[in-house]
Amino acid sequence: MPAKLFLLRHGETHSNVAQIYQGHGDSPLTENGLLMTEELAAYLKDECFAGIYCSDLCRGQETAKIVSQYHAVCPTVMPDLRERNYGIWEDMAFDEIEKQFPKQYQIWLNDPVHAIIPAAEPLPDLQRRAILAIKHILEQHPAPADNVCVVGHGGINRTILFHFMGLDLNNFWKIRQSNCCINIIEFGVRPVVALINNTCHIKQAAVDKIPVY
Prior knowledge:
Number of strands: 6
CATH topology: Rossmann fold
Largest sheet: 6 strands, mixed
CATH architecture: 3-Layer(aba) Sandwich
Number of domains: 1
Strand order of the largest sheet: 3-2-4-1-5-6
Mean pLDDT: 94
Helix content: 25-40%
Low-confidence stretches: none
Number of helices: 7
Distance between the termini: 31 Å
């Protein structure tokens, strides 16, 4: 079991700026997103990562590639680290979803586990997929001195954190996952979530104004 798992969110994308649900969509990083990711990479340059993992979506791969420039390992792409599939909400703007699906949208905000989004991946299924991917990663790094890095997404990161914190998925909106944030899970006698949504290294954007979806 590694010493620490650094769980990151990708840099700002064009869909983030436009406040559009991305899901499995492949919106690339903005110029500002690239600058933010360079800041993230510089902040983590003195960490020793035995492995760096990311989803197969371009925003995850772009972020992982920039982070890896200071390390001796190349990113490993894992499709199971993809963001949630948001079904017919993908590529739709937040306000458009609220207008077209007012009832479902309110359930999504207040009772996310039971929100029915047509053709979307259920939240419990997303968490199961995420944790299986994390368990596979941890198995690749049994040395207790190792640290590993995972570049994820806002939704899937929340499900991973809630798993290790023992929290229900209906807490989905109770934590923020800003672009280029750092979360840390420490492994000792038991897993401990030691850091959530650290953005102190980001100077390129008003992080709290970046969409959280």
